[in-house]
Amino acid sequence: MSGAPRNPADDDSAGRSIWTRPQRGARGPAPTRSRDEIVAAAVALADADGLSAVSMRAVAGALGMAAGSLYRHLSSRDDLLDLMVDRCVGELRPYPADGGSWQDQFLLLARRQLALYRRHRWLPDAIARRTVPGPNTLAHFDACLRLLQPVRAGVAAKFEAIAMVTGVVSLFARSAAAAGTVTFDHVDLAAYPHLAAAFAEPPSAPPAGDLFERTLRSLLTGLLAADPA
Amino acid sequence: MSGAPRNPADDDSAGRSIWTRPQRGARGPAPTRSRDEIVAAAVALADADGLSAVSMRAVAGALGMAAGSLYRHLSSRDDLLDLMVDRCVGELRPYPADGGSWQDQFLLLARRQLALYRRHRWLPDAIARRTVPGPNTLAHFDACLRLLQPVRAGVAAKFEAIAMVTGVVSLFARSAAAAGTVTFDHVDLAAYPHLAAAFAEPPSAPPAGDLFERTLRSLLTGLLAADPA
DNA sequence: TGTAAACTGCAAACAGCGTTCGCGGTTTTG
DNA sequence: CAAAACCGCGAACGCTGTTTGCAGTTTACA
After folding, report:
1. A65 CB neighbour count, 10 Å cutoff
2. With pLDDT > 70 as the criterion, what percentage of chain A qualifies?
3. Which class is domain B91-225?
């Protein structure tokens, strides 16, 4: 009976998520690598070669340990991705606190988010996975709500707006990364007259001005400022 | 030499992509299943159980064939996903042709796109992969450019706008699918006062009016209407 | 203080994945 | 009629996330 060895990392009884789980047990030998070291190594791998390079074996190998040993610290690869996301979201701190209208402040935060997504190009994809919010993600949400305090709108509308802004920021991050990537080369455009005409035109410069700012401002006013509530 | 058997599906010499490749060879026996049947089976699997359910073995199994046999028709799983995307994008036809301002028409198309993304919830993810545009995708682009013809803006700006609208549509599709999914349950909100206050408030109704329409309209005017070019 | 429980790390294994390869049988071409 | 091209198959390869039994180490409790 009870021959099954128990793994504290799998302990669902006291908090199912990675955020409520002790980083190490209280009884055994000290782990050779901390949770932070593991997450840092995984982030480094993702920064270098993308999310797909973050395999359990690769992360373990980068730390000089066996793949299975990671499961003493995490209960799944998803846990690792959640930790990676939250670690990077932490780079948004400290949050803007004073100066300017709420729109200006929100825009500043969005800019920092854009820079973050460009620093870690895998982040949007990792966030797109339905993820359990960690402390830094919660803090970010909290900061957003604080900035939106002067706005007269319902909570649901504010959440919608935050999600939408985050989404648009990741769209910008993606489009910048793939600006010239979408290739229509080697395609017969005969059947697509407007597409053909567009390419026949001399290549126009990308839209002038700060597209990012204009887009987000119009989005925010559209979502919140004109809200009838 | 030349003992290596050649696979016409891999023929990179005459068109590297799936779009320029003959559906079947001209010499051997007739394939038991057509390319359309394969793609249809894959779409059915994705509709039922998500993109991850579309494994070569599963698709082959659904058609009563061996996994390796699929490589007579496709050169990779990515090819299959490209075909799936283009097949579904084809459901957008016919494109709006008359009636209303360009904004109204564009919005109508966006609505159809939203419905499409909800019919096939895996589509945004499949499109997010950098994909080689197929005929239906090209036709969709062409239709967008046609609708934007009255707009005085550069080609680059128009492409940006199309990409952004497509992205926002997929954001809406995703947020609708995960409306109540984001759970802050079992989280100690003590450290996040604004988040706690937001949840203490009586749950406000989701933002009134047509959020989709308002968002896209403000996005379009922000991106295109006010363009100095 | 001694013993039992808890914890760590490892090597090996499992099932599933995308993909490749060689084979026998079928169809078309010259 | 022979040769080339093509189809489908089953077995394999290397990779993935994850599980499991084992040996060694540390802590807690009687």
Report:
1. 16
2. 86
3. mainly alpha
pLDDT at B14 over 50: no
Dist. CA A72–CA B29, nearest whole Å: 54
CATH 1.20.1560.10 holds for A93-225: no
Gap between the Cα atoms of B22 and A57, Å rounded: 40
Identify the band that residue B82 occupies on the pLDDT scale cut at 50, 70 and 90. very high
Pick among 3.90.550, 1.10.3470, 1.20.140, 1.10.10: CATH of B8-75: 1.10.10
pLDDT score at A182:
62
Contact between A99 and A34 under an 8 Å Cβ cutoff? The reply is no
Q: In a 3-state reduction of DSSP, which class is residue B197?
A: helix
Q: Which residues of chain A have pLDDT under 70?
A: 1-15, 176-183, 207-209, 225-229
Structure tokens at A227: 């809200």
> Is A77 an 8 Å CB contact of chain B?
no
- Give the closest residue to C20 (Cα–C1′): B68
Show me where the domains of chain A are located.
8-75, 93-225
Q: What is d(CA A66, CA B213) in angstroms, rounded to the nearest whole number?
A: 52
- Whether the CB-CB separation of B189 and B196 falls below 8 Å is answered with yes
Q: What is the mean pLDDT of chain B?
A: 88
Q: Name residues 125-154 of chain A within 8 A of B (Cβ).
A: 125, 128, 130, 133, 135, 138-139, 141-143, 145-146, 149, 153-154
**Cα gap B152→B107, rounded to integer Å:** 18
The Cα B146–Cα B148 span in angstroms is 5
Instruction: Name every residue whose Cβ is closer than 8 Å to that of residue B39 and which is 6 or more positions away in sequence.
Output: B80, B83, B84, B87
CB-CB contact of A57 with A68 (8 Å): no
